[in-house]
Amino acid sequence: MTARTMTAVRKTTAALLADAAPFAIRAERAPDVAARENLLDACFGEDRHARTCQRLRDGRAPAEGLAFSAVRRGKLVGTVRLWHVSAGGVPALVLGPLAVDASCRSLGVGAALMNHALAAAQARGHNAVILRGDPAYYERFGFSVARTSELVLPGPFERERLLAVELREGALMGARGMIAATGAKTRRPRTAKTRAMTAVAA
């Protein structure tokens, strides 16, 4: 077999493998930002900045090493980030938003992002993750209301949708009070559009 033939075989094999793999999860990169924002707008609407949990993200950077993108054939098709918070004085993370392109929701992208994010958070020594979401979906990842009954968000929320999972047993034992952002502040100034959206009552 000639070198040219071997190269052609390698390229063909690589192409077949890439096509067979439905998506890949990797750390979020700077070029992902625009695609991520477009995906979030498509999934949650442009008024998403007025949601209660956005108060925990406004002006803050995601937790180090805990922002992930799902990519399929060079296109961003999923995103998830985790953020530092104080859960009534107890250090924790808030997860969200989790979003998946409508064309890829049958591929298991959301579940893969969740499992990847939780494993990464645990590997980095974090003890608990909180989110606001559908219990029927998130209970498969260990989330429940068991440790959130005494916690509140900075805005209106449905008590049954405030969920948490402990990555270390007992991490949220006795946690009570307001969930507040504690992550590093971003240096990038907010746009007029973002400031206007943030001013809307959540």
UniProtKB/TrEMBL annotation:
Transmembrane segments: none annotated. Gene3D superfamilies: 3.40.630.30. Residues 23-164 form the N-acetyltransferase domain. InterPro entries: Acyl_CoA_acyltransferase, GNAT_dom. It comes from the Bacteria. This is N-acetyltransferase. It comes from Afipia carboxydohydrogena.
